[in-house]
Amino acid sequence: MMQKLMSKYIAHHVNPDNCVGCRMCVEVCPSNALSSKFNGSILTIILNSELCMGCGACVDTCPFNVLELVPRDEVETFRMEIDVLRPEKVEKRKYYMIARKVVDTSYCTGCGACTVCPPNGIIWKDGVIDFPDWVKLCRDCAICIKVCQRYKSIFKSGIGEVIEVKGAKSKRFKGQDGAMVLEFVACALEMGIIDTALMVSRDEKWKPIVVHVKHIDQLKSERIAGSKYSIAPVLPELNRIIKKAGKLAIVGTPCIVTGLRLLQKEIPLYNKVKLAISLFCMENFRYSSLMEFLEEKNIDVTKVKKFNIKKGKFIVEMEDGVFECPIKELDEHASSGCSYCTDFTGVDSDVSIGSVGTPDGYSTVLIRSKIAKDIYNYMISKGYIEECDVNMKVVEKLCKFKVKKALKKEENTLRF
Ligand SMILES: Cc1cc2nc3c(=O)[nH]c(=O)nc-3n(C[C@H](O)[C@H](O)[C@H](O)COP(=O)(O)OP(=O)(O)OC[C@H]3O[C@@H](n4cnc5c(N)ncnc54)[C@H](O)[C@@H]3O)c2cc1C
Q1: CB 383 within 8 A of CB 170
Q2: Which parts of the chain register pLDDT below 70?
Q3: For domain 2-85, which architecture applies?
Q4: If one looks up domain 97-146 in CATH, what number appears?
Q5: Which of 74, 251, 297, 309 is 20 to 30 A from 316 via CA?
Q6: Are strands 363-367 and 351-354 parallel, antiparallel or unpaired?
Q7: pLDDT by residue (tens digit) across 77-114?
Q8: pTM of the complete model beyond 0.85
Q9: Taking the domains of the chain in order of start, what are their residue ranges?
Q10: Which residues are near ligand 1 (CB < 6 Å)?
């Protein structure tokens, strides 16, 4: 049987642009047909066709569908070159660099893009990144630093590029504000633009859970609707499923969308994400920190119906009453990475959706791409939404406020 496979199939690099240089294919090859060598920062991976048995171990191991088995008579051999950003003198591995510059300095957004790590060495837990076994696991491929917005000091801000500004609410769904996020996802599914949306649901204690939405009926769930004021593992889940995924949408805070764009830039496989929806965001919280705060205030989280942040107030609507306090009281519970963030609207998204700028029960919608515009036009043509006026002055004011807040934090921080 093996002889037959050997003669018929051979490994081939069908998507070389997706190669990050992790060399896991080289390590797993049982016949040493794959080898790699460095020349400065350039890593070359080469196949010796005479040694390849066509077993497919490299194909199964590659996280990004770079390799496939193809009939042996169609190709001869291959060679791939990847720039792995190898420094001249490799003192420490790449993860060490991201840990020192980003994680240890509390600079990390918690977006989780770095969990793309091919040997699954980078762990996301409650918005905190760890790599417990990095000395053993790190392949030094540098993909973690290539997709880290903080390592690269990427700071977006302002309203960004917008095709159209809209105010609207869904007639079909109930959401945090105008349920326009749910409506965008529903229409993208209906139009066949996507087959799955990664959305943030929650458990009975409001712990965020990333779910795969494939049917419009799922969007009627009151746990999927609404804002959860905790950092959610949207990108870790995307990284977990990307190899086998179809056409995707993701919904997230601005840092999540910027993380997605960096993944798409480095690994074209991530272009399976056809629609990226950003929520406006001033700041977010680690789940455990938010729970500590609620406990201090004697709030039973299982009785909470809705959390909201409005006009400087943190508002908790419960079955038997409402708790309100100035948002300042939660300052020490906010994620430290958020205090450096300058992006309020999520300028990297296809469409940004937020609360400010429109009356209660409506959403402000910033349409940035053709795909988002097509979806919006579709929902209008179907009569799914009701429109209203938008006051962009207040959105602009909050964009400026976020930058000012971050600059103040920066001034007070000793940075690398
Ligand atoms: C942490 C956070 C801070 C925010 N800060 C502001 C602000 O300062 N000003 C403002 O105008 N708007 C802010 N928003 C946005 C606002 O709360 C609403 O999400 C937005 O107006 C969309 O409302 P909607 O009715 O269309 O959402 P819905 O249609 O109810 O859709 C909600 C969807 O948002 C996603 N989602 C919810 N929580 C999270 C999360 N933690 N991480 C990733 N995705 C999530 C889920 O996929 C969920 O299905 C914030 C949202 C969050 C999550």
Answers
A1: no
A2: 1-7, 86-97, 412-416
A3: 2-Layer Sandwich (3.30)
A4: 3.30.70.20
A5: 251
A6: antiparallel
A7: 888 888 777 554 445 566 666 777 777 778 899 999 99
A8: yes
A9: 2-85, 97-146, 164-411
A10: 175-182, 199-200, 208, 224-230, 232, 234, 251-253, 279-282, 284, 309, 353-356, 363
